[in-house]
Amino acid sequence: MIHINLLKFHYPEGEFRLHVPELTVERSEKVAVIGPSGSGKTTLLNLIAGIVTPLEGTVSVGDVKVSSLPDVARRDFRITNIGFVFQDFELLDYLNVIDNVLHPYRITGALGLDKEVKERAAALAQEMGIGDKLRRPSNDLSHGEKQRAAICRALLPHPKLLLADEATGNLDPANKTRILDLLFRSVEDHNATLLAVTHDHELLKRFDRVIDFQDFQGDNDSSQTLTDTE
Ligand code: ADP
Ligand code: MG
Questions:
Q1: N or C: less crowded end of the chain, CB within 10 Å?
Q2: Which residue's CA lies nearest to atom 23 of ligand 1?
Q3: What pTM was computed for the model?
Q4: C-alpha 98 – ligand 1 centre gap (Å)
Q5: Is the CB of 173 under 6 A from ligand 1?
Q6: Residues 2 and 195 sit within 8 Å (Cβ to Cβ)
């Protein structure tokens, strides 16, 4: 589902260097990504989603070489195929909750917005415990509520690939278990692939595999092995 080959990336500014010689995630696999803050976990997810592109090497999702697509095609590919729960949510402040959840459908014709989708959106929000906040400006939500709205937006189109960047980081323990159960169930029901950044080591047993970012950064080829803690 995901294949990365000989990837090198750095931002125009700063010292950060990412080098991924090879990384494969199979279809329907559930993989956790762990590692210290600043090690490049979010950057890796952005590379897989095609939000940024590598300076060298390739990123493929399914049969599509995302890193070679022109900007507009890459964006459309992401919106239609990848659910992304952003670390900082990236909700649109000027939209209410339901309009945020439906937003991917409004910015690409490839996802058809109809009554059934709207009903599913409302039901999903209900399950997530924000069903009574659909008309609230997203700005008025608590951190945990914003996070749940962001999860609803990512899950609604039943993406084949779900990228979750610390998706339960702002939730209290009871909500965390409930939301995580929902997220896993949605992924399993649709045979989706899950790549989830987490700092929560208790959760790791729920994944098929763990990718540890510890040694997975820098420009020094001798230290560029991805540690697989399976
Ligand atoms: P993580 O998610 O593991 O905490 P990130 O991928 O967010 O790490 O960041 C990796 C490194 O890249 C950090 O040193 C961060 O400061 C830097 N970085 C992130 N975004 C940018 C950017 N847009 N421009 C320059 N440096 C960045
Ligand atoms: Mg991050």
A1: C
A2: 11
A3: 0.92
A4: 30
A5: no
A6: yes
| pLDDT of the chain, 230 residues: tens digit per residue | 999 999 999 999 999 999 999 999 999 999 999 999 999 999 999 999 999 999 999 999 999 999 999 999 999 999 999 999 999 999 999 999 999 999 999 998 889 999 999 999 999 999 999 999 999 999 999 999 999 999 999 999 999 999 999 988 888 888 888 888 989 999 999 999 999 999 888 889 999 999 998 756 554 444 444 534 34
Ligand 1 in contact with 37 (CB < 6 A)? yes
Ligand 1 atom nearest to 39, measured from its CA:
3
Domains of the chain, residue spans: 2-228
Atom 12 of ligand 1, residue of closest alpha carbon: 16
Phi/psi for 218 (5° steps) reads: 100, -175
120, containing H or E segment: helix 115-127
168: nearest Cα among 156, 190, 153, 183: 183
C-beta of 13 in contact with ligand 1 (< 6 A): yes
Give the integer Cα–Cα distance in Å for 43 and 218: 13
